[in-house]
Every structure is written in structure tokens, then in C-alpha cells.
Write a structure and sequence with these properties.
Oligomer: single chain
CATH topology of the largest domain: Aldehyde Dehydrogenase, Chain A, domain 1
Mean pLDDT: 97
Structural class: alpha/beta
CATH architecture of the largest domain: 3-Layer(aba) Sandwich
Low-confidence stretches: none
CATH class of the largest domain: Alpha Beta
Bound molecules: nicotinamide-adenine-dinucleotide
Number of helices: 17
Strand order of the largest sheet: 15-16-17-14-13-18-19
Shape: globular
Radius of gyration: 23 Å
Distance between the termini: 76 Å
Length: 494
């Protein structure tokens, strides 16, 4: 049996259980749901379906752990757990890649390429675990007082995940919790469950005490909503659509939860006429088509300076036409399927909207149904040309391999169009002129701007949104600050 066949045999055997209080358990209702392999449209795994009662059990376990011995665990011990976890993730990285590839359809070459990112993240947060510190503060109080701050873990965190990059998005939620001494209940997306559950298993092997991390798969409207509204959850860390983000914020009001929301995007990728076009063509194309466009910060609005507009659009279209679509497990595949039938319907519907709005299909524009592709949820990489920034295809997040090419005149025009969006997650600038690059980078209202590259990430560099792309940052020192409370202590010295 090949490694892939072995994993498929193993995922299809029995029902995957949920992790509560250090034990793998059935759902209280006894119900289950299935996940699908989107490359072939067939059932991949059966998973225990968590509901409100399971969330209740999981939150109670997280609270007990938080109030119990986990509070006494030292930074060195938390660091050690994370370092052991990193070693286990390294040993089992191929399994994680296969889970991501089989369950959400990311090409195997893409999931394998994230090795350094995943391991780097874990080891970076292991380092952060020993850096948490308050301040001593001079005061001007009459008499003699000594004042200082303590940084304390926030408490029980509820994390709610999307499906589009299971390994790294799960790590982004687990790591600050463990580094700071919080505890958590994690609700994976119902479309990508295997990776979070496997990471939970590796955490137990690394020696994480029971109840610190609990994982309850289930539907958003039931398990997710129960977690978001739970009165004993201190913070929700959410990644997903802006639509659901609003519901999370709404649900947080009962006990004034801390909330961080990493939401959608419609990021501009600006190509100036003086750019190195040989680098910008593949760079801009993969900024939009990578992971079949299912990346929150994808450069989906391709802003091209007029003198090179026609040439650039034609070259990106040629690049797109040459991309190899296929089963995500095939090492030759560059573009895998969309994650689900629902996502396929959504993206093909936007293609119709684009046609109706008068965009020209420079390439693609339809579902891919040649041969075995017909069984999966494939869409041809699509370049929509002659797009106006006011069209729906330029304003709304499509989350598929579709890019809208919009012409512009100069830097001011480019940044005006770039900022004419309700989102603000990412942006790209391609130019050989260093002054122009800095001017544009400063003017773009977004959490990250890439110059002459796109979607490059590092554990030390904060990532997050402006405007309706959310608030809070993941990665970097700022991230763990969002899992800590500041306590001021004032001592009267006699
Ligand atoms: P989604 O909003 O549909 O679902 C996200 C999660 O929320 C899922 O786990 C879902 O079950 C849960 N959920 C749904 N309804 C809920 C409710 N009422 N209460 C609580 N939880 C609920 O998003 P998705 O389709 O899974 O992911 C794609 C979206 O995520 C895109 O918009 C993408 O841009 C965004 N995203 C953002 C980032 C970022 O860092 N900014 C990263 C990845 C994905």
C-alpha cells in the first residue's frame, strides 16, 4: 500500500472522536458527520458531531485545567511541551500534508512546502513562552508606593477555524494559548477536521496536560454558536468570513468576551509599468490562483498600469492556461479542487455575475470537467479583464481561482482604487522604483503589503486586517499580548 492508500484506509475506518479533557470521546448525541475528498467528491472520514452539550463539557474541562495545575506550570515547562510538539510535528509532517491535501484539496506540493513555516511557528512560540513579563512603574503618589504590572493568561479561549489552510491555521490558534498558559476549546471547520484532531493527538504525546486543549468538531450554527456565546469562555479567536465574524462579535456581548477576528479580503496587487514583468507575471498569477484562490489575502484585484495592461493581462492569462489542474495528491498538480460543492457553486455563480457585469474572460471562466476532473470541484484559473472596481466581482470575496484585472494611471490612482474596498487584509506592489514602492506601501490601507513578492510570511511578522478584514494580529510579539491580561499591583510601603 502507498502512504496515500494507507492514510485513506485509516481515515475511512470508524468514527473520529473528539478530544475533551485529554480523552477521545463520542459526541453526547451519538451523531456523526462526514468530510469529503474534494478531488474526487467522495467521503473521506466520519467524525463525531459536536453539539452544545459537547461544548459545555469541553469548556468545563478547559476551565478546570485553567484553574488547576496548568496555572502552576512554568514558562520553561510550557516551552518544553511546545518543543516536543515541534519534534512530533516534524516526524509526522507527511501525514499532516496528506490530511490537508485529501480533505481540503491543497496540492501536495503546496502542503509539503509549508514545512518550514509550520515548524518555524511552533519553535517561535516555544521561545515566546519564556518572554512574558510585566513592568515596574515609577509613580507620583504621595507617600511611598511600589507599583508594577503582571501579565496573566486571559483564561479559557474559544477558537473557531476556517478550512483553507488547516495545519497553519490550527497552529496559529493553539500556539499562543499554550505559550501564555491559557486553555482552549477549538472548533475546527466542518470541512477540515482531520488535521486539527491529529495535532491534538500530537499535543497529548508531547505531554500537554488534560483539558488544556479540547477539540470539538461540529457545525458552525450549533457548536460554533454555543462556543461563541458561552458565558465561561473569556475570549474568542476567530478566523473565517466577515459574515460569520459579525455573528461572533454579536455573540460576545453576553460576558464581554475579548474577541480577535481574522476575516476575508479583496486584496489589490499593483503592477507598475516599470516592474520586472518576468517576475511579476508568475508572482501575481500565483498570488491569485495559489490554493485555488482559497487564501484570505489572495491578490484578487490585479491593478495594472495602463501602458502594460494588455500585455500583462495576456501574459497572466497564458500562465493561467498552462497551470496543471488535477487530483491534489498528484505531485504534478499545481491547482487542486475547491473545497466543496458549495464553494464550486459560489465561484461559478460569480463567473456568471462577472459576465453579466461586462467583464471579458481572458482565460478560464468555467468549471473544469475534462476526464477525472468532472468528479471533483475544479474551476479553471480565470482572468477577468476590463473590470471596473465598482463591479461586484471586484468588491466581493469570491474565494476561488479568479482574478479581476483593473487598469490604472499613476501611483495616486492605483492607491485610490486599492483602498476603495471595505476590506484591508493584504496588498502587493511590483516596481523597480524604490521610492514608488514605499509610497504605495504606505498608502495602502491593509495589514500587510508585499513589495516585489506576495504572501511571504514569517512567525515573527504580524499578520491581520484593517477595516472589515478584522482586528487582532497573528504571529509576532503582538499575538501573545492578545492572550494576556495586564494586572496593576500597587503596594504601600510603610
Ligand atoms: P466561515 O465564516 O463560513 O466559517 C468559519 C468558521 O466559523 C467555521 O468553523 C464555521 O463552522 C464557523 N461558524 C459558522 N457559523 C457560525 C456561527 N454562527 N457561530 C460560530 N461559528 C460559526 O468561513 P470559511 O468558509 O470556513 O472560511 C473562509 C473564510 O475565511 C474566507 O472569508 C477567508 O477570507 C477567511 N479567512 C481569513 C483568514 C485571515 O487570516 N484573515 C484566514 C483564512 C481564512
Amino acid at each position: 500500500m502507498t502512504a496515500i492508500q494507507e492514510i485513506i484506509a485509516q481515515t475511512s475506518a470508524g468514527t473520529k472522536k473528539m478530544l475533551i479533557d485529554g480523552k477521545w470521546v463520542e459526541s453526547a448525541s451519538g451523531e456523526s458527520f462526514v468530510t469529503i475528498n474534494p478531488s474526487i467528491g467522495q467521503v473521506l472520514a466520519t467524525v463525531a458531531l459536536g453539539g452544545a452539550e459537547d461544548i459545555e463539557r469541553a469548556v468545563a474541562a478547559a476551565r478546570r485545567a485553567f484553574d488547576g495545575s496548568w496555572r502552576q506550570v512554568t514558562p520553561f515547562e510550557r516551552q518544553n511541551i511546545l518543543l516536543k510538539f515541534a519534534d512530533l510535528v516534524e516526524e509526522n509532517f507527511e501525514t499532516l500534508c496528506l490530511y490537508d491535501t485529501l480533505e481540503m484539496g491543497a496540492p501536495i506540493t503546496l502542503t509539503r512546502s509549508r514545512r518550514q513555516r509550520a515548524l518555524g511557528l511552533i519553535r517561535y512560540y516555544a521561545g515566546l513562552a519564556t518572554t512574558i513579563q510585566g513592568d515596574t512603574i515609577q509613580n507620583s503618589l504621595p507617600g511611598e508606593y511600589f507599583s508594577y504590572t503582571l501579565k496573566e493568561p486571559l483564561g479559557v479561549v474559544g477558537a473557531i477555524l476556517p478550512w483553507n489552510a488547516p495545519t497553519t491555521s490550527t497552529l496559529w490558534k493553539l500556539l499562543p494559548v499554550i505559550a501564555t498558559g491559557c486553555t482552549m476549546v477549538l472548533k475546527p471547520s466542518e470541512l477540515a477536521v482531520l488535521t486539527p484532531l491529529f495535532l491534538g493527538e500530537l499535543l497529548l504525546q508531547a505531554g500537554l496536560p488534560p483539558g488544556v486543549v479540547n477539540i470539538v468538531p461540529g457545525h458552525g450554527a450549533v457548536a460554533g454558536a454555543a462556543l461563541a456565546a458561552h458565558m465561561d469562555v473569556d475570549k474568542i479567536a476567530f478566523t473565517g468570513s466577515t459574515f460569520t465574524g459579525r455573528k461572533i462579535i454579536e455573540a460576545s456581548k453576553g460576558n464581554i468576551k475579548r474577541v480577535t477576528v481574522e476575516l476575508g479580503g479583496k486584496s489589490p496587487d499593483i503592477i507598475f509599468a516599470d516592474a520586472d514583468l518576468d517576475a511579476a507575471v508568475p508572482g501575481a498569477a500565483m498570488a491569485a490562483f495559489g490554493n485555488s484562490g482559497q487564501i484570505c489575502s489572495a491578490g484578487t484585484r490585479l491593478l495594472v498600469q495602463r501602458p502594460v495592461y494588455d500585455e500583462f493581462v495576456a501574459r497572466v492569462a497564458d500562465f493561467a492556461a498552462a497551470l496543471r489542474l488535477g487530483n491534489a495528491t498528484d505531485v504534478e498538480t499545481q491547482i487542486g479542487p475547491l473545497v466543496s460543492q458549495t464553494q464550486l457553486d459560489r465561484v461559478t455563480n460569480y463567473l456568471e455575475i462577472g459576465k453579466g457585469e461586462g467583464a471579458r474572460m481572458a482565460v478560464g471562466g468555467a468549471r473544469a470537467i475534462e476526464g477525472a476532473l468532472a468528479d471533483g470541484y475544479f474551476v479553471k484559473p480565470t482572468v477577468l479583464a476590463n473590470v471596473d472596481n465598482n463591479m461586484r466581482i471586484a468588491r466581493e470575496e469570491i474565494f476561488g481561482p479568479v482574478v479581476s484585472a483593473i487598469p490604472f494611471d499613476d501611483v495616486d490612482d492605483a492607491t485610490l482604487i486599492a483602498n476603495a474596498t471595505s476590506y484591508g487584509l493584504g496588498g502587493g506592489v511590483w516596481t523597480r522604483d524604490v521610492g514608488k514602492a514605499h509610497r504605495a506601501a504606505k498608502a495602502i490601507r491593509a495589514g500587510t503589503v508585499w513589495v516585489n513578492c506576495y504572501a511571504v510570511m514569517d512567525p515573527a511578522i504580524p499578520f491581520g486586517g484593517f477595516k472589515m478584514s478584522g482586528y487582532g494580529r497573528e504571529s509576532g510579539i503582538e499575538h501573545i499580548a492578545q492572550y494576556l491580561e495586564t494586572k496593576s499591583v500597587i503596594v504601600k510601603i510603610d
